[in-house]
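Quick one:
INPUT:
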């Protein structure tokens, strides 16, 4: 699942610029009318009205001239000119609006001019800081796309240099795969060569890979097609040089793109509109806050009971695998004895799941209070902290353990192509009655392909019903 990168970039910078013009306007109003500012605001609604006009005009300017083109490649003077042009057009439109609504005579020229000067310097300074911060911390940002480059030894220097020079704000090249030689262990511009033709798929399964850029000029089309299909099965977005657009690869979305200086065709499961991503995250934040308040109340009751029955920590944490292979710590109320992880190996022969998950009826590692909190799903409540942090979503796919993930085949990884969830299709489909891991993978992939906010809400409501009736829980 992806979202158009320019949409996120423009939205963030736009919000910052709105914040700047707002600070400038009210600061200059305070200076102009002090000490009578409270009286002015209370008696004259036009103070707020004119601010809204300024925000509206700036929004129109953004929509019409798109001032953030090549934002992350701009040097000082290009940035200076772009911000000057934006504020000049905004000022001219604001003056036009004031004239048309017959407000120009009463408009304070001091506020008008100083607000635009403040806005200009705010943009100049904040854009420079924002650009520096994003580019510097790209490797550590959770929304940065981790990209592999697949190319040949004679093109690797050119390709890597071009992509890095482009300074794409949410892209970081984590490794290079060379298909015609085994150069594993070497580096190109401090980026490691991590695999060759024989080992690249195994590397992509085990490591964090969001996107793959492929430039192999001499490769036969059928080989390229097979390679794209294999990455697609993992849920990885594939960018391919443009002369191979007609490849018959089954993909949810196929569109023109650019990586560095190279025109590409991008194969992705689907492209999600920005507003849908924002709404899903807002729903997660709201749900996370409400869930943590409930968790705090439940902790007061459950905490002493858990500690009295079995010495050890109140909360259980475990490394899990999230979106495209990212590792994070999941939190639960402890429902097992403290040595449960060590005893798991002894019980593997009694695993009731067909595949890579572990589940066992009457697991001897579970405490008495643990059976109750599992049956009622109370043990999952601390994961609202994971939801609030962004490691998880309210609805998604089950995050596997590290040892489960290490046994994945390529197509299994596709279920990790979106943020894992506190609940999901599997949880509301009688999870204890489903013993085939391949069936779970199929359900998860179908959910990802047909994702919608409406379906998430339906799953949440069904989850509440399942929890209240303790359906499918052991």
């Amino acid at each position: 699942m992806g979202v158009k990168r320019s949409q996120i970039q423009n939205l963030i910078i736009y919000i910052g610029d709105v914040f700047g013009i707002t600070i400038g306007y009210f600061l200059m109003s305070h200076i102009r009318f002090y000490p009578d500012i409270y009286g002015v605001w209370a008696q004259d609604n036009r103070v707020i009205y004119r601010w809204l006009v300024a925000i509206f005009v700036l929004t129109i300017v953004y929509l019409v001239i798109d001032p953030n083109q090549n934002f992350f490649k701009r040097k000082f003077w290009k940035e200076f000119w772009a911000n000057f042009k934006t504020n000049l057009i905004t000022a001219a439109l604001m003056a036009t609006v004031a004239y048309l609504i017959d407000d120009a005579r009463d408009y304070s020229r001091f506020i008008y001019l100083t607000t635009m000067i403040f806005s200009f310097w705010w943009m100049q300074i904040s854009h420079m800081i924002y650009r520096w911060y994003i580019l510097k911390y790209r490797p550590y940002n959770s929304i940065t796309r981790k990209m592999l480059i697949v190319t040949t030894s004679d093109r690797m220097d050119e390709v890597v240099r071009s992509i890095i020079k482009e300074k794409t704000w949410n892209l970081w090249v984590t490794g290079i795969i060379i298909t015609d030689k085994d150069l594993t262990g070497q580096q190109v511009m401090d980026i490691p060569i991590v695999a060759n033709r024989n080992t690249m798929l195994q590397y992509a399964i085990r490591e964090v890979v969001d996107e793959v850029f492929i430039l192999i000029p001499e490769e036969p089309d059928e080989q390229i097609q097979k390679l794209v299909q294999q990455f697609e099965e993992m849920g990885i977005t594939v960018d391919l040089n443009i002369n191979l657009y007609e490849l018959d690869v089954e993909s949810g979305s196929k569109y023109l793109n650019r990586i560095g200086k190279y025109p590409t065709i991008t194969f992705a499961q689907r492209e999600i509109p920005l507003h849908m991503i924002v709404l899903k995250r807002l729903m997660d934040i709201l749900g996370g806050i409400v869930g943590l308040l409930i968790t705090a109340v439940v902790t007061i009751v459950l905490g002493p009971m858990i500690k009295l029955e079995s010495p050890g920590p109140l909360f259980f944490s475990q490394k899990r695998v999230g979106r495209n292979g990212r590792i994070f710590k999941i939190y639960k109320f402890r429902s097992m004895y403290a040595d449960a992880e060590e005893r798991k190996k002894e019980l593997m022969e009694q695993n009731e799941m067909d595949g890579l998950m572990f589940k066992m009826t009457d697991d001897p590692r579970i405490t008495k209070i643990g059976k109750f909190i599992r049956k009622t799903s109370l043990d999952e409540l601390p994961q609202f902290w994971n939801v609030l942090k962004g490691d998880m979503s309210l609805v998604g796919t089950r995050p596997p353990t590290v040892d489960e993930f290490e046994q994945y085949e390529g197509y299994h990884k596709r279920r990790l192509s979106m943020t894992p969830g506190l609940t999901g299709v599997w949880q509301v489909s009688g999870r204890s009655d489903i013993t085939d891991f391949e069936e779970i993978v199929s359900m998860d992939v179908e959910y990802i392909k047909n994702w919608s906010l409406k379906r998430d809400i339906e799953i949440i409501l069904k989850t509440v019903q399942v929890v209240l009736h303790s359906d499918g829980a052991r």
